[in-house]
Design goal:
The chain has nine helices and 19 strands. The protein is an alpha+beta fold and 419 residues long. It has two domains: 115 residues, Immunoglobulin-like; 240 residues, Zn peptidases (Aminopeptidase, 3-Layer(aba) Sandwich), CATH 3.40.630. Strands 12-13-15-14-16-19-17-18 form an eight-stranded mixed sheet, with helices on both faces. It has a six-stranded antiparallel sheet with strand order 1-2-5-11-7-8, with no helix packed on it. A five-stranded mixed sheet has the order 3-4-6-10-9, with no helix packed on it. A hairpin with a 5-residue loop joins strand 9 and strand 10. Helix 4 crosses helix 9. The radius of gyration is 24 Å and the shape is globular. It starts with 10 loop residues before the first helix and ends with a helix. The chain binds zinc ion (ZN). The site of zinc ion has 3 residues, from loops.
Length: 419
Amino acid sequence: MDLLNVNGSPYFFFILLFIGVALIGCSTSPSLEPQSYDPPGATDTRDKEIAFQSRSVFAFQQEGVFFSNDFEGGRLLEVEKEANGIYSGQITPENHPINNSAWFAFNAWARQSMTIHITLRYSNGKHRYWPKTSTDRVYWIPLDSSQVIVAEDERSATFELNLGPDTLWIAGQELITNDVFDRWQQKLTKLPYIRHQVLGESRAGRPIHMLELTESEKPEAYLLVIGRQHPPEIAGSIGLTSFIETIAADSELANAFRKRFAVWAIPVVNPDGVAEGHWRHNTGGIDLNRDWHAFNQPETRLVRDHFLQLKQNNQSVIAAIDFHATRYDIMYTLDRNLLPGDDFTDTWLDAIRTQIPTYNLIDEPGGLGSPISKNWFYETFNAPAFTYEVGDETDRDLIEEVAVTAANAMMELALDTTR
Ligand SMILES: [Zn+2]
């Protein structure tokens, strides 16, 4: 039971031998060793096989109707014609079991203008996202309710689409994919106080980007922001980008904040999942936001190792926010007794509520049971940490208004509390 008690026993030699072998094993291939996943609430995050989706155009030449999943973020499989003008397609996850985030994204066109119906059949999940369409991938409009029929068991949903020779994009949410973030980052890094860095590569070799916002040579403290551990959680990305843009703005508050503090923002932690059109996981088949204890996945290890530099340099952290999305707007906070005497969380949430009284922000405090980023941030930096779940269908202007308000309130709070 107690290792100290075996000292001097005949087993001692074998224990030393075992430790020696273990050390040799570790030193030769430390990153390949699957790590323990046995603490309470932890999850096995060693790799699980995924089914890669084949990218193709589903062509119905006779009818002159075409569907495609051949773009970043696309997801649609096995399209079949059921009758004239009636099609069906499969929406399967990358692997399962999986949280229900039945992501779909495809485009379609027809030789001649026509109205068609397509039924999406979900396996290992149910209908979740209200379909949105776009002709330019920038401006999106939700399908009218008269054009959507969700089956009673939610295992399928039928959309009425008006097709023509121009490409129509249909997706569960706006397509905010890696290429969109690349352009966003390029725009931001034109500002002299924003620096871009590639932290390393995802499992499939995509860059993981970080933005640093500061005008200080020696920031007093850091604000940490991450997002898109879960690929379809676009509403979270809308919040994150507005939040960062507010701190990057040429406002009196933001200028004062950047002169004293820094932001480290990693907007896309799971670029492979985003590119592959995954429901939830990375290409290791793992929910990255359950890997913040074992750190079996390259994406979580990269983010952890980068943030740990702050710890090694004795830097303090103002707060950490991980942007997600779910059916409702929820701020997962820490149980208040974890940071006794620290009213940062309540002051911040009160400021948001006071300034946007119509926004129903649920505060859901939690303990440290699960291996999620919020808990790692707290345990590593002893700072307030948040999982901000933006509502999937929350009005986009409201998401931006809340994010702007939240960023301004957080900057004010940081400037106040360290005065
Ligand atoms: Zn999420």
